[in-house]
Design goal:
There is one protein chain. This protein is mostly helical. It has a domain at 90-143. The protein has helices spanning 7-16, 68-73, 93-108, 115-124, 131-144.
């Protein structure tokens, strides 16, 4: 019979190997500034150990998304490879049924789509710089389909 290693031997070999070390973070967090009276010599702690980061990189300012004039005139362009965000929402059954009926009607017409795409479309159509308009739409929606915890929005 062929010489086979037992499962216990394989487990021992696996345990003898060095454990994996995670790679260093891609972007190091800036070190907190020492408080008054702490570590007087270039951030060296009282224990005498040097901080992990010798000199934190200056914080870069985030680039502005779009100029205000462009926001009013054109909706956002969305690339197909943008990372997704999980909304993890729960909607009431009649609204989900309405969305499913719309998807089936579109499929009968030869248009393939999904709930995700339709919800993204609705979010894309939201006004960007119109909180008063969004507030009015929210007030109308709450009047028609209130939720238990929703505070009423007063008019005016």
């Amino acid at each position: 019979m062929a010489d086979q290693t037992s499962g216990i031997d394989l487990m021992r070999r696996r345990m003898e190997r060095a454990s994996r070390r995670p790679p260093p973070p891609r972007r190091a967090a800036p070190a907190p500034a020492p408080a008054a009276g702490e570590g007087g010599e270039g951030g060296v702690a009282a224990g005498g150990a040097a901080p992990a980061l010798a000199a934190p990189a200056p914080a870069a300012r985030p680039a502005p998304r779009r100029p205000p004039a462009a926001r009013a005139s054109a909706p956002a362009r969305l690339a197909a490879d943008l990372p997704p965000a999980n909304l993890a929402i729960r909607v009431r059954k009649p609204l989900d049924d309405r969305l499913a009926e719309l998807i089936h009607a579109l499929r009968r017409q030869g248009v393939r789509t999904s709930k995700v795409e339709l919800i993204e479309m609705l979010l894309w159509e939201l006004p960007e710089d119109d909180p008063a308009g969004a507030r009015e739409r929210l007030r109308r929606f709450r009047a028609f389909a209130p939720r238990g915890a929703s505070a009423p929005l007063e008019e005016g």
